[in-house]
Amino acid sequence: MTTRKSMEPEFERLLVREAGTGADAPAVAAAARRLCEEFAQHLTPLIGDGGVTAICGRSLQLAERRFPGLAPALAAGQDGEPFTHIQHFLEHQDPVVAIRAAVTVLAVASEVLASFIGETLTRLLLHETWPDHFDRIATEPTT
Amino acid sequence: MTDKVPIRRLSTGVPGLDAVLGGGLPEFSFNVVAGSPGAGKTTLVQQIMFALARADRRALYFTVLGEPPLKMLRYQQQFEFFNIGEVNASVRFVNLAKEALEGGLGEVLQRIVQEVEATSPAIVIVDSFRSVIEAAKRHNGGSDVQHFIQDLGMRLTQWQATTFLVGEFHLTETQDHPVFTVADGLVWLHQSLDRNSMVRKMQIMKMRGQAPIPGLHTFRITDSGIQVFPRLILAPQTPPVGGEAKTTRRPPRLSLGVPGLDEMLGGGIPAGQSVLVAGPSGSGKTVLATQFIREGVRRGEPGVIAIFEKRPSEYAQTSAIGLDQAVRDGQVGIIHTRPLDLSIDETQHELTTAIDRLKARRVVIDSLSGFELALAPTFREDFRESLYRLVAALTGMGVTVMMTAELEDTYTHLRFSPHGTAFLTDAIILQRYLELEGQLQRVMAVVKVRTSAHSTDLRLFEISADGITVGERVGDYEGLLTGSPHVISHERQRPRRRPHSRRSRS
Q1: What is the ipTM score, two decimals?
Q2: Which of B66, B178, B204, B360 could form a disulfide with B212 if both were Cys (CB 3.0 to 4.6 A apart)?
Q3: Residue among A126, A128, A113, A39 at smallest CA distance from A83
Q4: Contact B112/B152 with Cβ under 8 angstroms?
Q5: Is B485 exposed, middle or buried (0-12, 13-18, 19+ CB in 10 A)?
Q6: What phi and psi values does residue B219 have, to the nearest 5 degrees?
Q7: How confident is the model over B326-354, as pLDDT tens digits?
Q8: pLDDT number for residue B399
Q9: Which of B70, B85, B95 sits opposite A141 (nearest CB)?
Q10: Longest Cα pair distance anywhere in chain B, in angstroms?
Q11: Nearest C-alpha of chain B: how many angstroms from A70?
Q12: Rounded average pLDDT over A60-88
């Protein structure tokens, strides 16, 4: 199941790999932003900029419950730069909190996306974005 | 030179659509799929796309404005044809909302060109094309729409792609909208409302290079996707030029499984003909129809029964002669079609499918009243004409058709069908109730058998666990059908050496 809880360990490994072990908050924030942008790049052709904005907005709203301050970042970022504001938020956290917050945002985004387009398609997009990190769900060929 | 360029026709994967199109979808054709919101446009093109797309024949699906792609993907993947495994493999979705909103037609075309050149697709779909036009109007008043359509049409042709533009258009726009002139194919989807009923219909308004079946064809959307029921067109029966004269050989007779009745019919029903069994409620029409089918099973002639009032299990068990074993053995098929929103063409499709599957020789439609009620209101007005087409199609397949019709037991006038359909059938069997000597009796008569001599007797009959047993000719009475019979005086009685018979006109 593509749930926040099940996705968090996978995103944490991905983020740590991207930011480097023992990275400080600015490095974590930069890595988180790169991951968000990479995922968005693969999502945009399929669901459009509007779809990406909708998923991002809902994910930040949900993540805000655990990390107050994230959603205002979205409000400020509605000019088209939401990832800049996520990065800005993470830069000002303790590195451990920054990792947890970034991982939560990515995991919640996957969960929200799966609730709309299904687990198989979500895993396919995750696999296409990070092929060596996420497996796709095998689908049965239609006859 | 007589060599013409062959046009390859692609199978759409939509049951019934290839026939309606006139043999499939012409390769490299530029098609418009139009209709009102909710008509099934996106479902139709996606079903075709997933049927056609494969590794060496990729598809590009451009979403523009209108239905958000998130929602479109959410709902469309509920259909069985939506193969998630093909997404981003042989099928690629590309959203053009940004280009349409910010850049206008120029940027939309540029992005389409970019994507097509990168993918080399064999199938290209723009959904919705209408929203591209609307965005262009907002951008620059839509002055370059004509140029855009011409340019897109030309480019798509040179890319050797089969194309669909999907749009919410009004029928009135077909007169002057440039896209309809440029398009090779124009498929229009309608939602026809009549009172509380909605029927989906499809019309192929043009399909260059081939002859689609004209008129409106009903279709359904189910979990499997779209299924089209081609409107039945009867081929004209023309004698072969220079051929031999039509044979006058009489068709073989089919037994109804009721000895006395076979005798009344002149030896049974001529094979490949239609017979109407008319009578009041409870007179034994269904019993006779079941007996007709059971006799077929006994003789190795499978049968199909279309019922409209009871459920198949109830029908097989509660008819006087159980057919449940024959149904289990695959010798009898019972069709219980969805009531109240049927089209005749859908029923015909179900019947012919069952006939082909079982190699059936006998068909029962029980009853015409139930059938008419099961139709969507919009089709009830044309019931007589539609029934004519249905009966002609079925008998044209060589099957013998028995239909039942419920009659109000009135004695003021003689009718054989409440639908004015009696003339459509080749034979008519009439069942009536009579009061004779203080008892309610059932009688039966053969009213007509086309091109055949038949009995004109009114015969008493009984229904038992074994079915119908035909008895004696009703005795010395006259005025039986008026409801006021009286005994014929001995002076007026005709000689009764042999049963009375006559020949029906053709």
Answers
A1: 0.80
A2: B204
A3: A39
A4: yes
A5: middle
A6: -145, 160
A7: 888 899 999 887 666 778 888 888 899 99
A8: 95
A9: B85
A10: 102
A11: 24
A12: 76
